[in-house]
Specification:
Largest sheet: 2 strands, antiparallel
Number of helices: 6
Helix content: 25-40%
Shape: globular
Oligomer: single chain
Radius of gyration: 15 Å
Length: about 120
Amino acid sequence: MQEIVDQAAEKDTVLTTYFRANETHEAACNLLYQDFPNKFVWVEKKKKWKIRQREFAIGHMYYVHPTSGECFYLCLLLTTVKGAISFEHLHTENGVLYPIFKTACIALGLLEDDNE
């Protein structure tokens, strides 16, 4: 089981390479996740983002239902935190690392309480 988890952690995904692009490209740091395809294009064969040469693009994010728990809160943070460089960066606010994405959303004022 641990071997499977380790292999998954090493695999490059669109999201993890988005984090790396924010670290390496100055133009990426001021973009939200949903705005990223306007300036960058995903190269599937290389599993990386490169700077877009053409002017126009339409990007998309997968729909995540609010009852999906942490996946929903992760998507909520991706739509509000610019230049995220890691999952930890997404759930850190004012130097405080929150244990889960939901508490980070509450700290950012994106949610009012558990009932929202």
